[in-house]
Amino acid sequence: MTSPTEVRTRSAAARAIEARKTYGEGEAAVHALAGVTVDFPEHEFTAIMGPSGSGKSTLMQCVAGLDRLTSGAAFIGDTDISKLNKTELTLLRRDRLGFIFQQYNLIPSLTARENILLPLTLAGTKADQAWFDEIVRTVGLQERLGNLPSQLSGGQQQRVAVARALVPKPDIIFADEPTGALDSRTGTEILSFMRRAVDDTGQTIVMVTHDPHAASYANRVLFLADGQIVDEMDNPTSDRVLDRMKRFEG
Amino acid sequence: MIKLVLSSVRHNLGRYLATLVAIVAGVGFYTAVSVISDGVIDSLEGNIDDQYGNVDVAVVPDEADVVEQTGAQPEPLKVPQAAADQLAALPGVDGSAGILTAPVAFEGSDGKPFATSATGRLWITDADLNPLSVVTGDAPDAAGEVAVDQGLADDEKLKVGAELTLLTLAGPQQVELVGITEFGDSDALDTGGTVSLSEQDAFNWLNSGKQEYESFYLRASGSADDVVAAAGKATPDGFAVESGDEFRDDQREANGSFAQTLKTALQAFAVLALLVGGFVIFNTFSVIVAQRLRELAVLAAIGATPRQLKRSLRLEGLVLGLLGSVLGVVAGYLLTLALQGILALTGNELPGGISFRSANLVSGLFLGTVITVLSVMIPARRAGRTEPIEAMRAAATESADLGRARAVTALVLAALGLLGMLAGSGLATIGAGAVAFVASVFVGAPYLARVGARAARPLLERFGIEGRLAVDNSVRSPKRTATTANALLIGVFLVTLVAVAGASIRDFAIQQVNDVQSADYVVVSQGGTIDPDFVSQLKDVKDVNDVVAFERAPVTIDGAAATVSAGDVAEMAKIANLEVDKGDLADLADGTIAVLDTGDGKAPNVGGTVTVTDSRGKDAELKVVAVLAPTQDTGQTGSILDQASFDSLVGDVAPTIAFVDVASGAQGETKDAIEDLADQRPDITAQEGNALGQLIRTVFDFLIKAVTGLLLMSVLIALIGIVNTMSLSILERRRELGLLRIIGMTDKRVRRMVTLESVLIALLGTLGGMVTGLVVSLLLVLSFNRLSDATITPSIPWVELVAIMVLGVLLGVLAALLPARRSTRMEVLDAISAG
Ligand SMILES: Nc1ncnc2c1ncn2[C@@H]1O[C@H](COP(=O)(O)OP(=O)(O)OP(=O)(O)O)[C@@H](O)[C@H]1O
Ligand SMILES: [Mg+2]
Fold this sequence. Notes:
Chain A: It comes from Nocardioides lianchengensis. The complex is a heterodimer. Chain A is an alpha/beta fold.
């Protein structure tokens, strides 16, 4: 790797180059991603916004190795994930990535503690106890570690998911509408945990959201429309994001 | 509606395959057993009504208890012509018939004998009393004329008018075949073929010229009771007079009781097979309903009423039940034919052959269909309860709560079951106990599944998080885990039951039979003699160590029919089973007797005297010096006299029985040689002394194998059940599986997780079935011992049990193959996509 792009990738935890994703063929083809080139810098909180169907989830999934691009390339750090096979992708996700989804984040038969530790258990490594305790304290789950997901509220479940993503100290955390199913107060709590992880420990986070308030926790907002990046905004506030979105619709 | 049903059956054929196999197996086995036991009973029972329908009064030899005790037939007394004439001339007697039979055979033009096990019969002239009727030609009424039965004529291609050589006790005879006979609807009265002879020939050739009958039947014009009373006075000692009904009942009982027991036992197996089938059908349908919940919910949403849903499922059951039953009946007949073929290979034949009766066909079809429809009832009810909303729900997750009623029911059933088996005083209570116990295992299975899975957790956790998750998943829906495991459980339970109880009973039966026999071969002449020539021929056979011949004569002892014999007692004691209960055989001298204890409690004591009367009325007072225990061998000899007393009472007669001792380990050729010798003489049969033991072993081994084979089929069906359940569970858990894969569980580990769960279910079923089987069969053996003061030692076939265990694990792995593949074929994104 001696190309000039290498210098840029060093500071990017993940990136996509001319990423295209097409569903279907011919007339019926849907271009979910129509050539997206983007960097997700290290130690930054990036939000992805855009209308429904604009390709937000697709972009995130392709960069996170959950789905494959039709053309173009996606990197996690220096690793070209299009060159990895299925098992290598799985191991990459296990060792270097964290995930938070809107729903169905947890394994119902495992306790909160076990769910948090699951990626480490799968990797066969031990958690750093002090770090585990700190995160559990931060998200306020000390009392509920022995409970099963079914015994936790939606907000508590989402905190478990955040803790699970944070504990292994992944290179990058992908979150797809993590607050979409929560009331605003609980959502705000979750977002501030994520913000603190970036500020205090230099965690890298990429978050897909519809919510301008959620986006305001990010360092930077990318705007997607019809599979392309149409705008971006540094240090967003809710109002600015809202303004920007209104302009879109207009 | 029916169109919907048919298309559904067609559409779901793959899923229904398991159900179909279950029905076919159950019905097939049921049909095969019915066909076989019908044949067995017919052949043992004979067609009593056809044969003796018009007999109003029968004069028959007093039945010596020896027959029942040992199964051996002593030489019976015969009714002399004088007595017969007196009987026939009684007032109120319309017709009479004397029965006289003896073995005969034909000799071909090449000098080779054929039809070697045919029976020569005195032709009965009274048409009403004669069980035979002439189909072609005439009745044999002149000397030198014979008639053969249709079967024999067909087999040997005999035509009316043929000149034949008949081998008889009185030597070869030139005869002319004048007629073909039949017996009711069937061809033959005697299994080996019937040769009917005219009166004079019959006396000469079958009974050394003596005008005597084995038994004598009368037809009454008026009240049979009067004739019975009158006949009593004219009947000689050693004979009993029975009314027609008594006589027929006796005949039936004598021949049929064993068959009846056998039939009951076989039918119990058959019904069991049907029940296993029903269980598997229930299980498969439950899974099918669960899998089709969405489809059913959509139907409910667009307006199908619960009744319609229920009915459509039941109709599917009906269609499948009919289809499976038809295939099953066919399979049953094929199974019987296969069985016949296998037996033929080993030189045996199915007693009674195969009869294709519509009753078997109909009952197989009916039971198969009914059981299928019944098995579908509960799943159909579940289908009827489908709510439209379930179409929208992600997956119906069953509650893990099992309810208290279930626990109470299971415990009560288990307690009743144990009580019944431990303290039951009859077959019914003990059987009910066994059923209750097994039922308790089924009802309690979800608890057992939960406990068992938890117990297995430490073991499975060694496989890592996937082992842990496998346990968790089976515990999460214990009912489903239990239903799946139950299908396997019942199969393994039955296999274990058959293996343990079957082996125990087989060993016991063989031991019992070995107790009552010991001579290697018993050679008997019926009507002829075993002359010194024949004895020396026997002695010349390779590996024959010794031949001891005995003379026998029919007598009455203190008025009861019996057999006495004389011979080299010391030699016989060496090679045969001559058991002395009391006294000493060494004391046997002129004027003394060793009396056979027939087990009726009337055996005289040592030191007492008995009066022995021979068939001509000559009698002697003899002192009892020993009492013999009834064994197969003493059953042949009867009471034993010193040679001098025998000669003075009966006169000098030739031996009619010989005991043969062969070197151990020299069975094959020796057997053939001895049997060849016996075949040369129509009157002589050679019976392997331990033949009965071997027959029992063969029959039991075959039954155990056949039943085990069929039960293994049900285990295979259970395997399909596991595949179904696992597939369903994977479908339900697709989000969870997806999530696991997203956060880093490799496909290999996901597949291992599925495999572990499947193995866990299989292990639960196998272990549960085996433990239940062991408990039930041991308790059954114990209670059998308690009731019959038999001492059956339970034989536990450890090797088989371990093999079953291994098989169980393998089944689990096998059953997981498909679902495991399916589990990783799904896209990981399924976990987070909304649908
Ligand atoms: N499996 C698929 N097959 C076909 N088309 C798909 C598939 N997945 C996504 N698409 C299409 O790709 C486009 C982008 O979808 P994507 O899920 O990325 O949108 P999104 O921006 O996340 O929308 P939302 O805000 O509603 O979640 C949409 O038009 C969608 O219909
Ligand atoms: Mg989306």
